[in-house]
């Protein structure tokens, strides 16, 4: 096999990595991904007006078309559903929404959850503004998918990375992830 063929294969692999589609958590009102990408001009107004700094930007690793578009970064903040991002969106990529029906994502308990590994933590349960987290018989958090709208407050306040810093990684005890069936 020649150098040109090997270079071509490596190049195609690199391109495939950057063109790979993955579902991103968008600000409220941007849940229709195709429509959102068609309208978003990457102006950054939504991010600059966000009072909790939860709106960040996607990187090239998230996809070429998605790079510099707004995404939710729950390690930095959470969504209060204030609607300011939709008010400043000049193209309608972020549309008006009903906070009871708009689902940004779904909070999911991870294997780093303190309550599931040791006991005693109810921080996410106490913080959830929608009552979407309840405690099971062993006082461990469980997410009610019907009530959760993916605001990310539970992820923002989760102390798992601080209290369990020896385990390493970036995964909190609860994270907002795409809902099943969304791509």
Automatic annotation (TrEMBL):
Q: Give one Pfam hit by family name.
A: Fer4_7
Cite the Gene3D superfamilies for this sequence.
3.30.70.20
Limits of the 4Fe-4S ferredoxin-type domain: 30-60, 70-99, 105-138, 139-169
Keywords of the record, alphabetical order, are: 4Fe-4S, Electron transport, Iron, Iron-sulfur, Metal-binding, Repeat, Transport
Classification via InterPro entries: 4Fe4S_Fe-S-bd, 4Fe4S_Fe_S_CS, Fe-S_Ferredoxin
Q: Which PROSITE patterns match?
A: 4FE4S_FER_1, 4FE4S_FER_2
Entry-linked PANTHER family? ADENYLYLSULFATE REDUCTASE, BETA SUBUNIT (PTHR43687), L-ASPARTATE SEMIALDEHYDE SULFURTRANSFERASE IRON-SULFUR SUBUNIT (PTHR43687:SF6)
Q: What is this protein called?
A: 4Fe-4S dicluster domain-containing protein
* Species of the source: Shewanella yunxiaonensis
């Amino acid at each position: 096999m020649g150098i040109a063929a090997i270079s071509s294969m490596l190049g195609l692999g690199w391109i495939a990595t950057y063109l790979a589609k993955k579902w991103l958590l968008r600000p409220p009102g941007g849940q229709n991904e195709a429509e959102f990408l068609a309208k978003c001009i990457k102006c950054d107004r939504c991010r600059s007006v966000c009072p909790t700094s939860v709106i960040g930007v996607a990187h090239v690793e998230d996809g070429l078309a998605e790079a510099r578009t707004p995404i939710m970064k729950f390690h930095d903040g959470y969504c209060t559903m204030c609607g300011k991002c939709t008010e400043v969106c000049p193209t309608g990529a972020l549309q008006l929404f009903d906070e009871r029906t708009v689902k940004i994502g779904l909070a999911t308990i991870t294997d780093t959850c303190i309550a599931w590994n040791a006991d005693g933590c109810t921080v996410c349960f106490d913080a959830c503004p929608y009552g979407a987290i309840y405690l099971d018989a062993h006082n461990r958090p469980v997410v009610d998918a019907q009530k959760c709208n993916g605001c990310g407050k539970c992820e923002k306040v989760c102390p798992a990375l601080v209290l369990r810093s020896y385990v390493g990684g970036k995964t909190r005890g609860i994270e907002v992830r795409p809902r099943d069936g969304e791509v």
